[in-house]
Amino acid sequence: MDILLANPRGFCAGVKRAILIVENALKIYKKTIYVKHELVHNQYVINQLRNKGVVFVEKILDIPNNSIVVFSAHGVSKKTKEQAIKKQLIILNATCPLVSKVHKEVLQASKKNIETILIGHKGHPEVIGTIGQYDNTNGKIHLIESIKDINQLQIKKNNKKLSFFTQTTLSVKHTKSIIEALKKKFPYISGPKKEDICYATTNRQNAIIKLSKITDILFVIGSRNSSNSNRLAELGKEIGIFTKQIESFMDIKTEWIKNKKYIGITAGASAPEFLVHQVTKYLQKMGANPPKEILGIEEKINFNIPKHLKLPSY
Ligand code: SF4
pLDDT, tens digit, for every residue of 196-250? Predict the structure, then answer.
């Protein structure tokens, strides 16, 4: 049995930044740090932070006044921010800069009353945060998840100004076809030159396409609520490889790897490399050769954290 590791895989720059913000805040403030929603969608990461004293809440109203709150990497709506200000919370914003970019664009469209379409998954916190940048008083933001939804769209008659944006962690292939269909129906629609899908999502999906040519089973390490991990598992299945999405090595069933020669492994953007290491160690115990990494794009993107959260380096 040979183990082949997708490249790139695992933590992206936005996730690394969010975790660093919380870890440094714990050291600097030496107080309870509240995080609105899961900081990133990975159970292992969340449990590690919980063990360090971080408290995760879904509602700002559950946080005592004057406390410290971190907004998760997925971002929040304007209303959530207003609630935090009203409670006089100290806000540390761990929203991924690539999500903030989409927020700014949606806010601009809203200020100009340009009717807007967001392509994304209903109920996902990033989508809630992005929709929450738009003021529906004079304009409207619509959410669509598939080509099918385009036919249900009720765009104002004679409207010649329409824009679209996308969630950052979608399937590159599916989103492309949704945008094509949107442009066909609304030739005057404007949007980002490329969809808003981030570099990390795109690179991890491309790495699977490459890996799928060689492997007969694919493990995607990533939590069930991780959008980009779900998209990786979806892609593996679409390509036709036997694909299993796992939280950790403990989910692996021996019958899955029976008679398999090449085992591919990837990890979603919120899954730490430690989990990959645990899986490869387990497979080696089951008789696999040491893992090999396939060639891939080297990611050099790094996002700074706010100055006041930087710790001195000795
Ligand atoms: Fe940012 Fe993309 Fe990572 Fe999400 S997956 S945190 S958008 S870099």
Answer: 999 999 999 999 999 999 999 999 999 999 999 999 999 999 999 999 999 999 9
Q: Name the residue type at position 34.
A: Y
**Contact predicate 291/263, CB 8 Å:** no
The contacts of residue 97 (CB under 8 Å, 6+ apart) are: 14, 17, 303
pTM comes to 0.96
DSSP state of 120: S
User: What is the mean pLDDT, run by run of 10 residues, along the chain of 314 residues?
Assistant: 98 98 98 98 98 98 98 98 98 98 97 96 98 94 97 82 96 97 95 91 97 95 96 97 98 96 98 98 97 96 97 81
Strands 68-71 and 90-93, by their bridges, are: parallel
Atom of ligand 1 nearest to the CA of 13: 8
Indicate left, alpha or beta for 73 from its phi (over 0: left) and psi (-120 to 50: alpha). Answer: alpha
238 is catalytic: no
Hey, what's the torsion of the CAs at 296, 237, 202, 267, to 10 degrees? -60
Q: 131 CB less than 6 Å from ligand 1?
A: no
Q: How many CB atoms lie within 10 A of CB 279?
A: 24
The Cα–Cα gap between 220 and 230 comes to 8
Positions of E strands within 17-132: 33-36, 55-57, 68-71, 90-93, 115-119
For residue 287, how far is its CA from the centre of ligand 1 (angstroms)? Answer: 35
Tokens of 175: 């989103």
